[in-house]
Structures are given as structure tokens and as C-alpha cells.
Amino acid sequence: MKELKKITNSTEETHQLGNVIGQNVSENMVILLDGDLGAGKTTLTQGIAKGLGIKRNVTSPTFTIQKIYHGGKMNLYHIDAYRMEGIEQDLGFDEYFYDDGLTVIEWSQFMKYLIPEEYLMISIHLLENGAREFCFEAHGNQYENLLEDIR
Ligand SMILES: Nc1ncnc2c1ncn2[C@@H]1O[C@H](COP(=O)(O)OP(=O)(O)O)[C@@H](O)[C@H]1O
Ligand SMILES: [Mg+2]
After folding, report:
1. Does residue 3 carry a pLDDT above 80?
2. Order of strands across the sheet that contains 101-106
3. Given ligand 1 and candidates 7, 14, 67, which is best to mutate, with the most ligand atoms within 8 Å of its CB?
4. Residue nearest to atom 11 of ligand 1 (CA)
5. Which of 46, 47, 72, 106 is the most exposed place for a label (fewest CB within 10 A)?
């Protein structure tokens, strides 16, 4: 499966969707979250963290670019690339992409040149009734398998 769509009608449902993702990811995976401010990128990441067994509350890393959460079944590297718009140099992030945890990147379009070949893209759209539509796009075999697991 290469694509999948899910709709959530509340913050709680988005947490639940993230939870299922977190329960099914493998180490080394990279998830890109795109969507406007307030779409639900951080909310989904909170659910993913819970699914990984991370107890700490996940907050937006907007002012730090990256936060690392330990204590789950794997580390969670939560990156917000919003302030990296226009920066085109290697900041050493790629060492986190093949290591010991899941990397979740908000606003990944601002660090495209650092994104590995294989990844899961999740685009979030705000629907007119306030619901959120999550469009999953798998790039690579392990991500296609992941979509089978969470559909
Ligand atoms: N179905 C829904 N899915 C996600 N968030 C929702 C939903 N309905 C309402 N919200 C609210 O929308 C806001 C999304 O904020 P946030 O996750 O920080 O967005 P982003 O990280 O994309 O800027 C939160 O306050 C959340 O509670
Ligand atoms: Mg955010």
C-alpha cells in the first residue's frame, strides 16, 4: 500500500491515530508532517510519542528546532524545521536519520535537501467542519508495510 487517508474529528482521535503509528514504527524511520499552522502536526506527534511508550508530554519544538525524547521503546527525534527556511547547509541532522529512533519532522519542506530517500509523508488538511484529513504517502518498502499495519 502506497497511500492511505484517515480523518479525525477531535484532538483525541488524532492522538489515537498517532498512538497506532507509534506502536507500529521501526527504529530508523523518518516521518514528515506537512500542514499549515494548527493543522495538527504536533498533536499527532504527541500520539506517536505515547505509542512509543514515552511518558513526557511532547510540545512544539518551534524555538529549539529539535527535541529528543527518551524512555520509550526507541528515541523520538522531534524536529520543527519552520525556522530553517532558506538555510541550505548541512547542520549534521542526518546522523539522527539512521540511528536508534524515530525521526518526526514538522515543516519538512524547509529541509528537503536533508531528507533521506525513503520516508513516510503525512500531509494534514483542515476540513471545513474542523475535522482533519491525514494523507499518508509511503516512499520505500518498510513504509508501505507500515501503512498496511495502521490502515
Ligand atoms: N481533529 C483534530 N486533529 C488535530 N487537532 C485538532 C483537531 N481538532 C482540533 N484540534 C486542535 O488543533 C490544534 C492543532 O495544533 P498543533 O497540533 O499544535 O498544530 P501544528 O503542530 O500543525 O501547528 C490543537 O489545539 C488541537 O487540540
Ligand atoms: Mg507544531
Report:
1. yes
2. 3-8, 132-139, 119-126, 30-34, 101-106, 75-80, 66-69
3. 14
4. 11
5. 72
